[in-house]
Amino acid sequence: MSVNDILDVGQRGLQTQRQSLSTTSNNIANANTPGYSRQKTQLVNLPAQSINGLTIGSGVEVKKVIRVHDEFVQKQLVDENQNFGNSKIKAETLNRFEALATQEGSNLSETINRFFNDFRELSNNVENPSLRNVVHGSAQSLVRGFKQMNDSLELGRRELDLRVGDVANQINVNAREIADLNSTIVQSEARGETPNELYDRRDMLIRDLAQKVDLQVTEDQRGQKTILAGNAVIVQGADHFELTVRRSAAEGERAAGSMSVFINGSGVPREITHSIKNGELGGLMQARDHVINPAMRHLDKIAYQVTKKVNEIHSEGMGLDGVSNRNFFKELGDEVEHAAFKFGLSDEINENHEKIATGFGDGAPGDNRAALAIADIQNEKFLPAGELGGTVLHSVNESLNNLVAQVGISTQHETQMFEHQRAIVDQLENYRQSYSGVSLEEEAVDMIKYQTVFNASAKAMKVGEDLLDTILSLKD
Predict the structure, then answer these.
(1) For residue 320, what are the β-bridge partners?
(2) 3 state SS of 318
(3) Nearby residues of 13 by Cβ (< 8 Å), 6 or more positions away
(4) Alpha helix locations (H) across 315-386?
(5) Three-state DSSP state, 468
(6) CA-CA distance, 465 to 473, in Å (whole number)?
(7) Residues 240-280: pLDDT tens digits?
(8) What is the phi-psi region of residue 448: left when phi exceeds 0, alpha when psi lies from -120 to 50, beta otherwise?
(9) What gap in Å lies between CA 431 and CA 435, rounded to an integer?
(10) Tell me: the pLDDT tens digits for 342-374?
């Protein structure tokens, strides 16, 4: 090996260790950067030279800077984040909704009991105008109770619909950036670069996107990611296709006016609502369609049946003026839907409480049979289980309590699922961090190692320089 070869090997050693030190410094600087994967320099020895029959090494070089990454763990995190986002959003939503339903349900239950109890008090003295006025007041309170609970449920449903729109917008933002990264990565690789930071950013966006909607991720030969959400392509190469939401008609569990999700591909937007099963987007629509909407339908059935039962008895009875065939509540016909919202006193009863029917027959003084019959509705089991499943009939209060209990059961289930799913995601993330994350202790050891070799390479070059000076002095 000539003196120049010694200098060349030393120079390559200096350059290689400098690049390794730079990579280590970059790891340390990004120790707290979300989504960052530790990088390592891949060192290879250069082809040996044959000099006078002897094989002599030519030094070392950095072949490439690789990122420490486990694609299998990435796929598991994408899969489990879908379940995590779904259970998380349902647990958060239903916990708030349960508190609301419990409070409103308790208030409505008390109002229902007061209404029927006041009718029972009226039956003891049907000609007392003060007691009639009390019944009139408790009936108005019952109207307000149904409407307040209905309004609260409707407000919860609209809030979920607004959040559906927000999550769809977040999905669009992520999809747009992933498409841009696909393009940038292909361009970088075409220049012979290894854009590790761009890989990390794309993987983190995909994990974040998985929390929002169920995904299918594939990679083509050029390294570009194609992403399907709800069986619709939202990212393909450098192109992305946005989700939109708009109100649609009732269908299945979905009430009229609920937000539906569409994909804006080529041509007319295509609805994909039923294809979205997971993630925050799926969780919001499931909480709306499988918990809030059934609760509203069940409340409508209670309001409808109470109206029907009271009116059937009241229309057969007579007021103080001897007139019968009057409804106590507004006639709802055969429309159960929105019955809680439409629930109200009939115009005649609302105008004059003396028209409240308390007896049957010819309106004889003291006839209280109608008032007693209406009061007995309180404990009559005439409401089907309906939305709750089963065929057992319930009283008004039992049915209302079952409505609240069903919300509580759903909330408890989703909370347990959330805790379970969070533990799974945390375990996977901890494993990813242990494999791909930066360990400051390990980086410090590597830095000392690279520094030591750097110094040794510098000394080798110094020796080569001294030898060269000696040779030159001999020529002089």
Answers:
(1) none
(2) strand
(3) 59, 60, 453, 454, 456, 457, 460
(4) 339-342, 347-351, 369-376
(5) helix
(6) 12
(7) 999 998 887 666 666 666 788 999 877 778 888 889 999 99
(8) alpha
(9) 6
(10) 999 998 988 888 888 888 876 566 778 888 999
Q: Is 233 helix (H, G, I), strand (E, B) or coil?
A: strand
Q: Which two tokens stand for residue 197?
A: 């930071």
* Measured torsion, CA atoms of residues 81, 86, 89, 95, in degrees rounded to the nearest 10: -130
Residue 58 banded pLDDT, cuts 50, 70, 90: confident
Per DSSP bridges, beta strands 258-263 and 243-248 are: antiparallel
Task: Name beta bridge partners: 345.
Answer: 329
User: How far from 415 is each of 82, 150, 444, CA to CA, in Å?
Assistant: 16, 25, 43
Q: What is the bridge-based pairing of β-strands 243-248 and 239-240?
A: unpaired
Residue 195 has pLDDT above 60, yes or no: yes
CB 43 within 8 A of CB 61: yes
Angle at 118 between CA 98 and CA 344, to 5 degrees: 60
Q: How far apart are CA 440 and CA 171, in angstroms?
A: 35
Q: Range with the lowest mean pLDDT among 70-74, 205-209, 216-220, 360-364?
A: 360-364
User: Three-state SS for 69?
Assistant: coil
- Residues belonging to the chain: 476
C-alpha span between 358 and 316 (Å, rounded): 10
Amino acid at 431: Y
Question: Taking the domains of the chain in order of start, what are their residue ranges?
Answer: 3-68+439-475
